[in-house]
């Protein structure tokens, strides 16, 4: 007698992380920061525990958001909304 029917599928345990690898990689960043890092791909990343880098140099997060918005505008995409970035809010245009 078979132990389980063909229609039976074991569910993962609650303690297992079943999210895709991309979701696990930078899950501690906010969605706007995730979007900026994804937009800039290999050009931006983390530097140490709390810093960021852009094109291999340390950079403030605001500079990364600004550059990501510049790239997104060139591609015809909407800007990333981020506090202090007037372009994302449509101010000053």
Report on the architecture of this protein.
- It is a single chain.
- By secondary structure, the protein is α+β, with helices and mostly antiparallel strands.
- The chain has a domain at 28-83.
- Helix content is 35%, strand content 12%.
- It has four helices and three strands.
- It has helices at 21-25, 31-40, 61-74, 86-89, and strands spanning 44-47, 51-54, 57-59.
- It has a three-stranded antiparallel beta sheet with strand order 1-2-3.
- α2 packs across α3 (61-74).
- The longest helix has 14 residues, at 61-74.
- The chain is globular.
- The model has no long low-confidence stretch (mean pLDDT 77).
Explain the layout of strands and helices.
Blueprint: H1 21-25, H2 31-40, E1 44-47, E2 51-54, E3 57-59, H3 61-74, H4 86-89
Antiparallel strand pairs: 1-2, 2-3
Helix pairs in contact: 2-3
Concise structural overview:
The chain is an alpha+beta fold and 93 residues long.
Question: What is the quaternary state of this protein?
Answer: single chain
Please state how the strands of the largest beta sheet are arranged side by side.
Answer: 1-2-3
Compute the number of helices.
4
Number of strands: 3
Percent strand equals 5-15%
* Strand-pairing-aware structural class: alpha+beta
Order of helical and strand elements: HHEEEHH
Helix content: 25-40%
Radius of gyration: 20 Å
Spans of at least 5 consecutive residues whose pLDDT stays below 50 are none
Q: Which of globular, elongated, flat, extended, rod-shaped describes the shape? A: globular
Kindly report the average pLDDT value. Answer: 77
């Amino acid at each position: 007698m078979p132990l389980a029917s063909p229609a039976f599928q074991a569910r993962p345990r609650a303690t297992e992380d079943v999210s895709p690898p991309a979701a696990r990689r930078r899950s501690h960043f906010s969605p706007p920061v995730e979007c900026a890092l994804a937009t800039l791909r290999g050009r931006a990343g983390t530097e140490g525990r709390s810093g960021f880098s852009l094109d291999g140099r340390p950079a403030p997060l605001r500079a990364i958001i600004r550059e990501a918005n510049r790239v997104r505008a060139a591609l015809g995409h909407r800007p990333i909304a981020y506090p202090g970035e007037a372009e994302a809010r449509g101010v000053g245009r």
